Amino acid sequence: MPAVLGFEGSANKIGVGVVRDGKVLANPRRTYVTPPGTGFLPGDTARHHRAVILDLLQEALTEAGLTSEDIDCIAYTKGPGMGAPLVSVAVVARTVAQLWNKPLLGVNHCIGHIEMGRLITGATNPTVLYVSGGNTQVIAYSEHRYRIFGETIDIAVGNCLDRFARVLKISNDPSPGYNIEQMAKRGKKLVELPYTVKGMDVSFSGILSFIEETVFAMLVEITERAMAHCGSQEALIVGGVGCNVRLQEMMETMCQERGARLFATDERFCIDNGAMIAQAGWEMFQAGHRTPLSESGITQRYRTDEVEVTWRD
Amino acid sequence: MQASGGGAGGAEDRDDQQSSRIPACQSGSGSAEGEAVRRAPQGRGGPGRGRAVMEAAVARPQGEQAPGGVGSAGDVAPLAVRPRRGEVVLVPFQSPLEADMARRSLLPDAQRHQGLIRKEFAVNGSDLLVRWTADDLAFIRLSMNPFLDQLSLVIRNIWSLGLPPRQSRS
């Protein structure tokens, strides 16, 4: 019954998780939140991660009720993501692996999301909509690869929402996307032009409703196209933007029309977390993957389809 | 439990090509930069425990001479004529094991900006030596700051978890 410790810190969330045989034993996380109107920069984000990661490690072990003797493998996010935060987490993973004399595993962040989504929801072979601040991909599994059917040609959908929030100085606490969603729920009327002024007052919910409906409809379209191509009857949403209830509603409508089933996880596992890295690491460890220290450098551009998925048929 | 060949300290580390012998640095006598000594925060167990004293010595501009690299002294091929700047940081640890552990943790990401700056690691006894070489001192400064942050994290990591008894004795 191997237990895997996973480190995640590719963006502004840092998490340390422990997974053993399909059970999440611990998953503490911290988020680096910047003031409204600002985004998070690599150097500052890395500084935040360095300040909390060792405490998070202890927290994870305590929550799991385990010691170093009980851990069988150390997994960490090799990429993709922001360079400085990735490095800060990777050096800790390497040091811990040496101190405890455990094998090391570099995990693709996107695959971490997918494997956690499959674990939590029980979906067997879904078409995956991966939507977050850093990534937007439609993915289907085929012949030991997670194939990218479609993706953004510029910025991720979460990045689009975050930038919009930045312009409007919407709070980043707990996340700009969450606050956009809450404000958009109060929107009752869809307007074509995102401009609403009432005297000296302004109303933003119409603008935010417009943004969400449009970008989410785009995502539903490309997911449906991938499902049609693959003959898939399951769809799985992963990534931080996957927490958005409106997106889930729109995806559910599409799935129902196709007679397909929709799977999604809650904010514990949608948003970047250490347990998802531990889970993907667990699958890889069981399949015999190992990452030598000399090959454990981080990769800011680590494609989902670069990984040979030997743990699936 | 550890699968064969999978240990973090396993023999398959192919990083020796990066562990070039760093030649003894020339102290920058009379140089404007002089020597900067920065002491890391004290850890548990008193002043001597894991204290990292970092000495930055400015190497003279290399001119036509290529930076010292793999191979014995004297096997240096000249580069095109352009000034090269170098900095060496020496970090003493409590044991060769800790120094090598730090090297293995920091080395894999050392080559991320290889086009602009070259970073070489070596362990000499209980000392970790890191040498930067670049055309512009500004690149060295930009690289050194995050390196010191990462080094500090590795040292704190070793302090907080401690060496297991069997590794301490080796």
From TrEMBL, chain A:
Biological process terms in GO annotation: tRNA threonylcarbamoyladenosine modification
- Give every Gcp-like domain span: 29-278
Q: Which EC class does it fall in?
A: transferase
What's the record's note on cofactor binding? Binds 1 divalent metal cation per subunit.
Cofactor(s) recorded for this entry are: a divalent metal cation
GO cellular component terms attached to this protein's record: cytoplasm; EKC/KEOPS complex; nucleus
Binding positions (substrate): Y130, V131, S132, G133, G134, D162, G177, E181, N244
Instruction: Name the UniProt key words of this record, in alphabetical order.
Output: Acyltransferase, Cytoplasm, Metal-binding, Nucleus, Transferase, tRNA processing
Grouped into one coarse class, the protein's main location is cytoplasm
Q: Does the keyword Metal-binding apply?
A: yes
Catalysed reactions, as listed in the record: L-threonylcarbamoyladenylate + adenosine(37) in tRNA = N(6)-L-threonylcarbamoyladenosine(37) in tRNA + AMP + H(+)
Q: What is this protein called?
A: N(6)-L-threonylcarbamoyladenine synthase
Record gene name: OSGEP
Automatic annotation (TrEMBL), chain B:
* Record field: compositional bias (Gly residues): 1-10
Which InterPro entries does the UniProt record give? CTAG/Pcc1 (IPR015419)
Q: Name one GO biological process term.
A: tRNA processing
Gene3D superfamilies in the record:
Alpha-D-phosphohexomutase, C-terminal domain (3.30.310.50)
Record's GO cellular component terms:
cytoplasm; nucleus
Segments spanning the bilayer are none
Q: Name one Pfam family in it.
A: Pcc1
Give me the ranges of the annotated region Disordered: 1-52
Q: Which domain of life is it from?
A: Eukaryota
- Name the family the entry cites: Belongs to the CTAG/PCC1 family.
Q: What is this protein called?
A: L antigen family member 3
Organism of derivation: Bos taurus
